[in-house]
Amino acid sequence: MADAVKDGSANGHFELYLRLQSGMEKCMRTLLVTGAAGQIGSELTTALAHRFPAASILATDIRHPPEFPENVIFEHLDVRDADRMSLLVDAYGISTVYHMAALLSAVAEQLPEKAWDLNVNSLLNVLNLSKSGRVTQVFWPSSIAVFGPHTPRLKTPQHGVADPTTVYGISKWAGERWCAYYFNRFHVDVRSLRYPGIISWKTAPGGGTTDYAVEIFHQALENKRYDCFVDADVTLPMLYMPDAIAATLALMEVPSQAITVRSSYNLGGVSCSPSQIAAEIKKHLPGFALHCKPDFRDTIARSWPDSIDDAAARTDWGWKHRYGLSDITADMLEHLS
């Protein structure tokens, strides 16, 4: 691809259009990852490149991502731009989209209208591409943020009450309903997981309420203390990144007829509080101290479940997480140090 297309400029946009019209360039790209510079998107892109070495992966974002394997190509894309997304899908022959672009919970509270536009309207852009038959399979991540104060907090069921209190949660709940609608109405093969908090050492968190579960490890090594923005006793479901990636890949490889949930599957992992994470860290760094200074994110966290019932995922496609809290702690500290 020429640089004019690579940089996502207006000239590149037009040049790409001309190539499509003339049929001068055909690409064998099949997989698209949006939000590829994000916490999950960046690791998912790399995992896809290793999982499918013979395929080429198109990674897109509004900012440049970290280095990717050789079979990954990058294009600038604002996912709210339906026209450019459509052109890229046609230019690269995209068959599967992993739509990871989103504005996360803490940031979304500061920019509610932008969060709705990005989180919901961009999903509709992808679903409409699939409705047209040009994309055959879609993955879209939801979140435990769809749950709220009237949801059972312990072992939150797959089909429980959803009363989100945040812009992020509202957008994810709306997205789930759109996914189910497009499957039922237009037979779009869209699949989704309700991610809990994600813990990872490779990339920085992106403005979510559960970011403390990543920051605490960095600060433990750098400063021997952490000032946490949620209280010590707040328990939330967490998942280590390798488990999150494994679940995503597994769901996308399951035969369509095995999928019984077309809104979003509950995905559980390890339920823990900041004090429990701190206790595990102290086994490796005895001098570590946790201090809590709750802010608005504490209120958000307290509206979410303590634990998740993910029996549907376990029954339908054999989901099972591998990493417990002690495993996560040891691996995080080893890699970050």
What topology does this entry show?
Blueprint: H1 3-6, H2 10-22, E1 31-34, H3 39-51, E2 57-61, E3 72-76, H4 82-92, E4 96-99, H5 105-110, H6 112-131, E5 137-143, H7 167-186, E6 190-195, E7 197-199, H8 212-223, E8 225-228, E9 236-240, H9 241-253, E10 265-266, E11 270-272, H10 274-282, E12 289-292, H11 296-302, H12 311-317, H13 325-336
Parallel strand pairs: 1-2, 1-4, 2-3, 4-5, 5-6, 6-10, 7-9, 8-12
Antiparallel strand pairs: 9-11
Helix pairs in contact: 2-4, 3-9, 4-6, 6-7, 8-10
Question: Can you walk through the features of this model?
Answer:
This protein is α/β, with parallel strands linked by helices and 337 residues long. The protein has helices at 3-6, 10-22, 39-51, 82-92, 105-110, 112-131, 167-186, 212-223, 241-253, 274-282, 296-302, 311-317, 325-336, and strands spanning 31-34, 57-61, 72-76, 96-99, 137-143, 190-195, 197-199, 225-228, 236-240, 265-266, 270-272, 289-292. The protein has a domain at 3-195 and 241-247: Rossmann fold (3-Layer(aba) Sandwich). Helices cover 44% and strands 15% of the residues. Strands 3-2-1-4-5-6-10 form a 7-stranded parallel β-sheet, with helices on both faces. Strands 7-9-11 form a 3-stranded mixed β-sheet. Strand 1 (31-34), helix 3 (39-51) and strand 2 (57-61) form a beta-alpha-beta unit. Helix 4 (82-92) packs parallel to helix 6 and helix 6 (112-131) packs parallel to helix 7 (167-186). The two termini are 39 Å apart. 47% of the residues are buried. The model is unreliable at 1-29 (pLDDT under 50).
